[in-house]
């Protein structure tokens, strides 16, 4: 032997190693088959509820969109209706003006004294303290007008004088009534022009609404 003696050391452990504990299997699950079925049913119900909520949200969004579109459509329809109504009003006004243009002269020709008699009658009721009232009419109507106006003055017990004079400035149907401190007049031409101007402006305004 070539090697020398080995020195003994006290670091060596001569005890037998203790065996490692065997792994212990986990206890069997404490859930029964009924518990598992209940859990599956709960999970399924939750899934169904979530799906229902999602579907309801989608339906609500779709309804909201549909309502908004319906509102826009109704606004557009209302606009068209308003424009149509404005056009109809303008047409009706234009037709009324055309009728008035033909009807007024015809009425004046048929009843030339009607409006004048009404005006004279109103004056007689209000001017009882006047010493005289002078009525100017178209020359062609002076004779017929004088007779009618005197009858009206008598019917109202007018104490003053009723004087009827011809005027070349007045058209048939026109009249000018004068007293000491006032007077009134009926000018069919000016009245027709004022009516036509008002109706024309109205028609123009209605036409602008349809543009």
What does this structure look like?
This protein is α+β, with helices and mostly antiparallel strands and 211 residues long. The protein has two domains: 37-110 and 188-211; 112-180, Ribonuclease E, catalytic domain (Hypothetical Protein Ychn, Chain: A, 3-Layer(aba) Sandwich), CATH 3.40.1260.20. The protein is 61% helix and 11% strand. The protein is built from four helices and four strands, in the order ααβαβββα. The chain has helices at residues 33-110, 114-126, 142-155, 188-210; strands spanning 132-138, 161-167, 175-179, 182-186. A four-stranded mixed sheet has the order 2-1-3-4, covered by helices on one side. The longest helix has 78 residues, at 33-110. It is rod-shaped. It starts with 32 loop residues before the first helix and ends with a helix.
